[in-house]
């Protein structure tokens, strides 16, 4: 694991947007298209604000979420809504969006369909992950109902997940998909998450799910 500490959040967000744009460009020089998976939540918005105007061939970039909260797309907690408002705009509006949501009562009703569209995107070219102070990443939460299955190396690419720490059902990429990404960045802020990250390095993914990706990840932190 590589840990990069920044003087402040703004510099970190700008630097990460630049790094990711550079990695996407490199990937597009070598391949016809690149898959780019991003988290929702409160942290990545400023990265999206910078990245959406990056000068690259977005028409060959496939953007997807690492996980989604099972709420309609216009709900304030929808990660899809965050992407549509802050990433898939400006130059990045030319990207192909690969959805992790379809209107349905539960994720189980549409997971097979969604999995079929996700499968061809593997392995993910560039993966950006967030982390909660409880050491969850994507929607791999400690104590989640199907965490052990999602950590298994034979897990399907996409799973529904319910957890005490998550107010609504989730759908999430599973550990084998996250671990097979060609480039992995984790972005975290604040002292509490830094301490959680340090602790997770010595814990098993069953207790600290972020641990499943740490060995090959570049972690970006600012106060
Ligand atoms: O939908 C989500 O909640 C995310 O994809 C999730 O994995 C997120 O990255 C962490 O919960 C951190 O969230 P914050 O950035 O809001 O702290």
TrEMBL record:
The reaction(s) this protein catalyses: 6-phospho-D-glucono-1,5-lactone + H2O = 6-phospho-D-gluconate + H(+)
Function: Hydrolysis of 6-phosphogluconolactone to 6-phosphogluconate.
Classification via Gene3D superfamilies: 3.40.50.1360
TM spans (from-to): none
Associated pathway: Carbohydrate degradation; pentose phosphate pathway; D-ribulose 5-phosphate from D-glucose 6-phosphate (oxidative stage): step 2/3
EC number: 3.1.1.31
Sequence similarity: Belongs to the glucosamine/galactosamine-6-phosphate isomerase family. 6-phosphogluconolactonase subfamily.
A GO molecular-function annotation: 6-phosphogluconolactonase activity
Keywords per UniProt: Hydrolase
Domain Glucosamine/galactosamine-6-phosphate isomerase: 7-221
Organism: Kangsaoukella pontilimi
Protein name stated in the entry: 6-phosphogluconolactonase
One GO term of the biological process aspect: carbohydrate metabolic process
């Amino acid at each position: 694991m590589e840990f990069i500490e920044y003087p402040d959040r703004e510099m970190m967000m700008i630097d990460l947007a630049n790094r990711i744009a550079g990695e996407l460009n490199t990937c597009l020089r070598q391949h016809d298209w690149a898959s780019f998976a991003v988290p929702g939540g409160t942290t990545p918005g400023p990265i999206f604000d910078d990245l959406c105007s990056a000068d690259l061939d977005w028409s060959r970039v496939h953007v997807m979420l690492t996980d989604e909260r099972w709420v309609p797309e216009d709900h304030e907690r929808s990660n899809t809504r965050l992407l549509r408002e802050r990433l898939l705009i400006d130059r990045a509006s030319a990207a192909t969006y690969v959805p992790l949501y379809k209107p349905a009562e539960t994720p189980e009703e549409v997971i097979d369909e969604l999995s079929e569209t996700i499968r061809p995107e593997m392995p993910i070219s560039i993966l950006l992950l967030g982390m909660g102070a409880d050491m969850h990443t994507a929607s791999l939460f400690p104590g989640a109902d199907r965490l052990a299955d999602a950590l298994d190396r034979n897990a399907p690419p996409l799973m529904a997940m319910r957890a005490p720490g998550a107010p609504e059902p989730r759908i999430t990429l599973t550990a084998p998909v996250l671990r097979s990404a060609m480039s992995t960045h984790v972005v975290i802020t604040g002292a509490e998450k830094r301490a959680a990250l340090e602790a997770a390095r010595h814990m098993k993914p069953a207790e600290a799910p972020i641990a499943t990706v740490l060995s090959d990840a570049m972690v970006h932190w600012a106060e």
